[in-house]
Amino acid sequence: HAPLGMSHGAWIMNEDGAIAPYASFLALDVAPAAAMQNINNLTANYAAITGAYGFLDSVNTNNGDVAQAYLSMAQSNILISIANAVENGCIQNYFIGSAPLIVSKGSLDDNFSGIITDPTSAQLDTTALTADQKTVLRAIAQNTWSYFSSITNAGTNWLPPNRLSSGGTVS
Description:
- The chain is mainly alpha-helical.
- The protein has helices at residues 22-26, 32-45, 72-86, 90-96, 99-111, 131-151; strands at 18-19, 50-51, 54-55, 59-60, 69-71, 163-165.
- Mean pLDDT is 80; it is low at 1-13.
């Protein structure tokens, strides 16, 4: 049985077998060993899932078709997840002390008591990433960063397009 309900070595994101790699990166904080297994399986089983700017949007595990596009949202999630994982929670730690966040959490607790479960009480995989895994993730981050550094400039107000085809067409 694969960890975290995985099939084909990666999380199934919908019933037609399409998976989005960024989901595995988001899991680095709560299940690093399983997330790394997913990332490794994705690259081993679907070589076309990576390109010049890191991971493409998704792959259909039923037929191996890879969506030929990079999405800013996915690239952002990958980059931030890697930074947080390899730098010992730096992103989370930055926001932990934020007064508005503390107030918001209190409001959420009041308004959604009994509806939302506190994720800190969940059983988490606290397996630390190895130095080799961090090296792999840093290399992925460098490729992912090139998505932003190569397509943004003063003319784009430093904002990336929402979608960029693997051939370089903005849509």
